Amino acid sequence: MKAWFARDYGRPDVLRLEEVAKPVPKPGEILVKVHATTVNSGDRRIRACDLPPGMKTLGRLALGWSRPRQPVLGTELSGVVEAVGQGVTRFSPGEAVYAFPGGRMGAHAEYVLLKETGPVAHLPEGVDMQTGAALCFGGTTALTFLRRGAVRAGQSMLVLGGAGAVGSAMVQLGKLAGAHVAATTSAGNLDLVRAHGADTVIDYQKTDIARLAERFEVIADTVEAMDFATAQKLLTPNGRYLAIAGTLKEMLGSLRKGPEGKRMIAGPADERIEDIVELGRLAALGQYRPHIDKIYAFTDMPAAHAHVDTGRKRGSVVVQVAQ
Ligand SMILES: NC(=O)c1ccc[n+]([C@@H]2O[C@H](COP(=O)([O-])OP(=O)(O)OC[C@H]3O[C@@H](n4cnc5c(N)ncnc54)[C@H](OP(=O)(O)O)[C@@H]3O)[C@@H](O)[C@H]2O)c1
């Protein structure tokens, strides 16, 4: 089978398409023939070794000091079960699935091995392969931070960066939770963010967000658009600033409360099977739909990375691995 390898850190042209042995499922594992995957901000961060300040040493220790320890990137996928290992009962060959290997990655390949009890679920009826591949990266992050931020019906939430993979999921899932959602984006994406359900859309190039008159119970910052000190001015008492794109500084800062019970919440998103299943359920109901910006052929993986590198992608960038 073929897989894309990042044998070094660097620009998209560091990626190489290599031939490797097709894996064989061991007991309890399933082999999935990948139909679609995505290139997301996590893939590009690892490929480029673009680690935030304060995370350079820790990040390299975790990801690989001089090259990625896991050279096959790709956090999410959809596909069809090709074979199952001994003892597998949840899945059978021929069934359509979607999966979120998440930090373990490996989805930028023609085949992927997954534990049957791992982050994989049946693709619901009516959800296509491209959508299935794009459900989890933004979706699980949004569900994690909605949970940690205790976002409830009737609360007001400001999403900073409403057009990205995480931001567009935050807008849709925040609305589903019953929040009143305002979201920032550039002029070209106002309609898209509105279509995802935002009650108010704000062009951050025309409006100084830090000087908004409105106050919010939750600010979900998906693009490091402000810091906690600025966020405090826009939060109601007991308000929560979700530093989704935060670094070590935000994680340490989240350990103590600000004035009037205002809090910063940061850290890696959960990778929970319950969230993965829930995203599929919502997609089948038409209540959550990741926006697909562009679909690239598998052979064009470096071009897909280059598009993500611009920092301007809308929603998800999908790579079609098989028809
Ligand atoms: N905590 C976690 O576990 C976790 C998990 C996933 C992702 N993340 C982090 O979350 C961040 C977002 O990820 P993503 O995948 O959603 O990124 P993305 O899809 O690449 O974000 C691109 C979007 O950001 C928007 N944007 C950029 N600057 C902006 C600004 N100043 N104000 C408003 N919008 C802006 C752009 O819209 P315009 O063109 O309209 O500006 C574009 O649509 C990344 O830093 C990623 O590392 C964290």
Topology summary:
Elements lengths: L1 E5 L8 E5 L9 E11 L1 H8 L7 H8 L13 E8 L11 E4 L11 E5 L4 E3 L6 H5 L2 H13 L7 E5 L4 H12 L3 E6 L4 H6 L4 E4 L12 E6 L6 H7 E9 L4 H6 L9 E3 L7 H12 L7 E6 L3 H9 L6 E5 L3
The structure holds NADP nicotinamide-adenine-dinucleotide phosphate.
Report on this structure.
By secondary structure, the chain is of the alpha/beta class. It folds into two domains: 2-135 and 290-320, Alpha-Beta Complex (Quinone Oxidoreductase, Chain A, domain 1); 138-265, Rossmann fold. It is 27% helix and 26% strand. It is built from ten helices and 15 strands. The strands form three sheets. Strands 3, 4, 5, 6, 7, 14 and 15 form a seven-stranded mixed beta sheet that branches. A six-stranded parallel beta sheet has the order 10-9-8-11-12-13. A two-stranded antiparallel sheet has the order 1-2. The longest helix has 13 residues, at 136-148. The protein is globular, with a radius of gyration of 20 Å. NADP nicotinamide-adenine-dinucleotide phosphate is lined by residues 40-42, 45, 138, 141, 160-161, 163-167, 184-186, 189, 204, 222-223, 225, 244-245, 268-269, 311-314. The site of NADP nicotinamide-adenine-dinucleotide phosphate (NAP) has 29 residues, from helix 1, helix 4, helix 5 and strand 9.
Approximate strand percentage: 25-35%
CATH top level of the largest domain is Alpha Beta
Looking at this structure, what is the CATH superfamily of the largest domain?
A: Medium-chain alcohol dehydrogenases, catalytic domain
Instruction: Count the domains.
Output: 2
Radius of gyration over C-alpha positions, nearest whole angstrom: 20 Å
Q: State the end-to-end CA separation.
A: 15 Å
Please name the CATH topology of the largest domain. Quinone Oxidoreductase, Chain A, domain 1
Give every kind of bound small molecule, once each.
NADP nicotinamide-adenine-dinucleotide phosphate
**Number of helix segments?**
10
What sort of overall outline do the alpha carbons produce when their principal axes are compared? globular
**Main pleated sheet:** 7 strands, mixed
Order of secondary-structure elements: EEEHHEEEEHHEHEHEEHEHEHEHE
Output mean pLDDT: 97
Q: What percent of residues adopt helix (DSSP H or I)?
A: 25-40%
Do you know the CATH architecture of the largest domain? Answer: Alpha-Beta Complex
**Unreliable stretches:** none
Structural class: alpha/beta
Question: What's the total number of strands?
Answer: 15
